[in-house]
Amino acid sequence: MRPIKAVENSANEIGKWIAGLVPLELFVPEPHQAWRPLVRDAMEFVFSRLSKERLEAKIAEQMVLPPNTPPELRLIRLISKMPGLQKLGQVLARNRRLDPALRDALCQLENGMSDMNAGEVHAIIKTELGPRLETYGVEIEPAIYKEGSASAIIKFTWRKPEREREQGAFKVLKPYVPSAFAEDMTLLGALGEYLGSRESGHRAGVRDVRESVSEVRLLLEH
Length: 222
Hints:
Layout: H1 11-19, H2 36-48, H3 52-64, H4 71-78, H5 83-92, H6 100-111, H7 118-129, H8 132-135, E1 139-140, E2 146-147, E3 151-159, E4 165-173, H9 177-195, H10 206-221
Antiparallel strand pairs: 1-3, 2-3, 3-4
Helix pairs in contact: 1-2, 2-9, 5-6, 5-10, 9-10
């Protein structure tokens, strides 16, 4: 890993330092090495334009990780609380033109994301629903059932007056998503324009990535 003082010169240097934490070989295998310059450039572009507060949090997280932390764990920490990048990986994983091994790796990355705990989910539900939880005898399961890039799902049972208990599920928006949403939308839009420009110098794979970026923006807006 490069020394922290090496990233203090400029936003571009910071972007390069962040992107350099994870070897490209981890998620762009040898058969697809032609994609590596594009992926590296995209990572540098995004992190060099991330807001100061979010970037500082990313750097701090990486600096406290043990030196022997596996690169895949570093990558998961890098894109935690970044719904735009998480959703981009999910969308790319559905692209049948990619190698199956690469698609599997992207799926595993998406499934491995976990930046919300059950206690936080319970607290949000109690704040939002208040006394209605008691009124309808709501019993929330202790563990999160499923977690995505923008929300967490937790199951519950409830009792409608004069009827048997029924099952249900709460889909809870992650607290940081509203504030991160606008910035991620801006970053993805700028990234799509940049990759398609002459300035980027990329040709191979640009169409696939730009289409995926557009799809991600639509999904997150929804």
